[in-house]
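Task card 7
Instruction: Convert sequence to structure tokens.
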Amino acid sequence: MKKSTALVTGASRGIGAAIVQKMRNEDIYVLTPNRQQLDLSSNESIDAFLSSLDVPVDILINNAGINTIARTIEVTDQNIENTLQLNLVAPLRLIRGIIPQMIQRRFGRIVNVSSIWSVVSKPGRVTYAASKAGLNSLTQTLALELAPYNILVNAVAPGYTNTELTKMNNTADQIEEIKKLIPLGHLAEPEDIAEVVYFLCSQANRYITGQVVLADGGFSCQ
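Output:
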């Protein structure tokens, strides 16, 4: 079999880095462009990157994103624009640029990394939640459009995960309190999320498409 090629955004740390490691462990060739090569805040940079691609992409993982915590009355225009651009517009533009070759080859796997805050609510997440809910809807529409070409599109919505971002947004004491809210009693590790992402984009997945898979230790069930 031809070695598959994956493109993973936001691959330098946390969940993204774990996804890349999992892919490479499974002998998948992984593209991990840095910000100089692909600046998701710039549509011009996205278009230039797509034009420069010299290998067909079999797997696209839209993992990069930002989460600026602010209540609605505090949200700035810049925050709205930045969050929607990185979390929603950039993934859509990448997908639009990559799927023609997937359609031609009649094979592709796309996984969008969403969030539990796309399905449950918390103060201060208005722009983040809106962008991730949009990503969920985008996932479902694309799944319908691309199913005839054997292209499966899914989203993974992680819950609280042991990443630098979680530690930045919460003190050690707050994290201990968060653990008490999770039925499994602990945060996910980035590798836990990577395993779910990998399955959805692997050839073992032949029938799951258009789904938002919650990987949150049962948090959203309460």
